[in-house]
């Protein structure tokens, strides 16, 4: 049974005026939605396993507000594995430990292998194609990001960066792409810079969905929701002690 909780932005901003206790004013609508879903903040991440029967929480943006839904098991991932542009057709494979590849073909010409890797997702950015690859197998995990320049006219492949892990879910905004794994969260910016927000210290068990709220991230996972605040990105006066340069991580669970 799917339980869905919605929060109106206008009501949320009224609550912000009354409460005024959140770390980041941008996240007040999120906090209201999380509390409406029966979740409470905690400094501990819950364990996750089939024997614990913890629900999976999914986050999404609907009508300008945050929607939180709950499912008994992890949802099927919705990765984009093929794309067509300017007469070029890109198709990919992900066969786990047996390998994968990204192939491009134009018209009736012979297909050409661009990447020999397990392709997770393809995402267009202007005249460039973001190619996210990775593999998690037997406790090992690794990821890679490639870029296909001028992918609709004259494809040229280049390696962008290696990742600490293979992403489990991805969030997009006009200027940022977040790559979320079980033990790390990284971002790719519109000017093609890569930054790691968290690594190893804050595990996220089986992340399944993520959305941006301004420059902050809200991530659904097995057992709850985690909120990553990035206060230094809100054009606020910097803190003298530099504390606003640290990602604030808050887990929201029923326990």
Mean pLDDT: 82
Distance, first to last CA: 21 Å
For the largest beta-sheet, the strand count, sense and barrel status come to: 5 strands, antiparallel
Strand tally is 20
Unreliable stretches (pLDDT < 50, length at least 5) are 1-23
Overall 3D shape: globular
Number of helices: 2
SSE run: EHHEEEEEEEEEEEEEEEEEEE
Q: Largest beta sheet: what is the strand line-up?
A: 2-20-19-18-17
The share of residues in helices is under 10%
Beta-strand percentage range = over 45%
Total number of distinct structural domains: 2
Determine the oligomeric state from the structure: single chain
Which value, in Å, is the CA radius of gyration?
19 Å
Alpha-beta content class? mainly beta
What would you note in describing this structure?
By secondary structure, this protein is mainly beta. It folds into 2 domains: 3-73 and 202-253, no CATH class; 82-163. 8% of the residues lie in helices and 48% in strands. It has 2 helices and 20 strands. Strands 2-20-19-18-17 form a 5-stranded antiparallel sheet. Strands 5-6-7-8 form a 4-stranded antiparallel sheet, with no helix packed on it. β5 (82-85) and β6 (88-94) form a beta hairpin. The longest helix has 11 residues, at 9-19. The radius of gyration is 19 Å and the shape is globular. The model is unreliable at 1-23 (pLDDT under 50).
């Amino acid at each position: 049974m799917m339980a869905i909780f919605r929060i109106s932005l206008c009501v949320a901003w009224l609550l912000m005026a009354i409460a005024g206790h959140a770390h980041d004013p941008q996240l007040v609508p999120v906090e209201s939605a999380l509390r409406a879903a029966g979740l409470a903040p905690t400094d501990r991440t819950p364990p996750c396993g089939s024997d614990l029967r913890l629900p999976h929480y999914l986050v999404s943006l609907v009508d300008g507000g945050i929607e939180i839904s709950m499912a008994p098991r992890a949802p099927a991932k919705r990765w984009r594995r093929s794309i067509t542009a300017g007469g070029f057709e890109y198709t990919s494979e992900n066969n786990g430990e047996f390998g994968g590849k990204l192939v491009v073909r134009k018209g009736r010409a012979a297909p050409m292998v661009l990447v020999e890797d397990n392709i997770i997702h393809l995402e267009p950015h202007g005249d460039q194609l973001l190619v996210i690859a990775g593999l998690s197998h037997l406790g090992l995990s690794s990821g890679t990001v490639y870029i296909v320049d001028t992918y609709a006219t004259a494809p040229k492949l280049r390696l962008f960066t290696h990742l600490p892990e293979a992403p489990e879910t991805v969030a997009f905004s006009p200027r940022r792409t977040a790559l979320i794994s079980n033990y790390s969260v990284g971002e790719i910016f519109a000017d093609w810079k890569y930054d790691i927000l968290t690594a190893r210290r804050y595990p996220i068990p089986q992340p399944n969905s993520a959305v941006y709220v301004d420059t902050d991230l809200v991530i659904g996972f097995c057992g709850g929701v985690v909120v990553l605040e990035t206060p230094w990105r809100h054009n606020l006066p910097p803190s003298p002690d530099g504390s606003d340069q640290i990602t604030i991580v808050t887990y929201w669970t029923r326990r």
